[in-house]
Amino acid sequence: MWFSKVVKSHFLAFLFSGALTQVGCYNFNFSTLTQTDPPQLKLENALSLSEAIQITEAAVGGELENQSGRVFYNKPFRLWSKKKNITASFDTTFCLRINPIPTSPVGEGMAFISAADTALPQNSDGEWLGIVKLNHQWNLLSS
């Protein structure tokens, strides 16, 4: 999988919420991608290209400033159960190929988060990586 080092792009790989009935093993693998996006992935301002996910469509010849791309795992499941006092654990591996564009400004970074909502917070570009909005009080509480 490769990602261009572009302005204000980040990666959100998976969306976790919903229901997991019992403790068990849940496994998925996207080691090869085709031009058609796998139905389990929801891409926003990102595309499948050359067996990889290109974060920010603009990286392919467009304006790169204030851009971000997001990828969600589209099947929700629960990470914990308050009733049963069970917390799940998970591990993930990403293979990155970063191809910098020499004349482009640098990006702010990349993030992997789990979230119940796929909505992009308003005013969350740049240093906020599309995770939280520009509101210092809220950001201090979420850190």
From TrEMBL:
Residues 1-21 form the signal peptide. GO terms for molecular function: carbohydrate binding. InterPro entries: ConA-like_dom_sf, Legume_lectin_dom, Leguminous_Lectin. Keywords: Lectin, Signal. Residues 26-135 form the Legume lectin domain. Belongs to the leguminous lectin family. This is Legume lectin domain-containing protein. It comes from Fagus sylvatica.
